[in-house]
Amino acid sequence: MLFAQLMRNLTDSDPASSSPSPSNTQNTDSSTPSDSPSATITESPETSGTAKLSATETSGRSAAASTGASTAKQTGSSKTTKKATPTSIDPRLPAGGIEMVTPSAIAQASYYKIGDSVTFAWNYTSLSVTPSAIDVLVSCAGNGATYTLASNSSVAPTGIVTWDTRPEETGANPLLTDTYTLIIHDAAKDVTAVPSPGYLGAYDQFTFGMYIPQQYTPLNEYVCATCNSALSDMERQTLKFLFGMGVITIMSFTWFAGGFGVLF
Fold it and tell me: What mean pLDDT is predicted for residues 94-107?
């Protein structure tokens, strides 16, 4: 009886001591290298796809940035500003000038009635560089005024301008009966600028007269304000008296001399 109980106890304790504990087995499996799938660390498909997408995006952004920088460099290098090459002018050439067409350069002095429209026309001479625009002016020394006929006008082979001389068009400085000077010059330069070879110089060689028209006066009512050759009645009587005295003196001397035989 006692022996049987002892054997039963030995039998019950032997499997427990022979079977490894879960903790020991786990430690043994974790410490021992194995080719089992549980020992391999794998990423989930979502994590792997996200990582690959991030890497692709990063690579694409880097390529785009590199391409943009390269394009910017190429674009910046391709945009080159071309500087205008100055025109070489022979310094021996004369400055550009003006030749009047209307009125003709060989015409006599020109006079225009104030209130009418006056037309001027001209050609350019000795121009190597054509100005981009011109100014046309008229100056009067009598009132010190300058009248603008055209400003920044385009240049044509034959220039032409019409001046309306009506009082309402001439502004605050009414035209006077006086001599005027036509001025044509490059709009980009001052009137007093020194002429350069081949370039248009300021032209001020044409002068003309302007006058204020007067009302018609019949000849018998006309009075010459500056004429002084006419004699008054008193002056005419004085001349008659002197002429008569001269005749009497001559006749008296002749009679006296003849009576005494002086002349014969």
Answer: 91
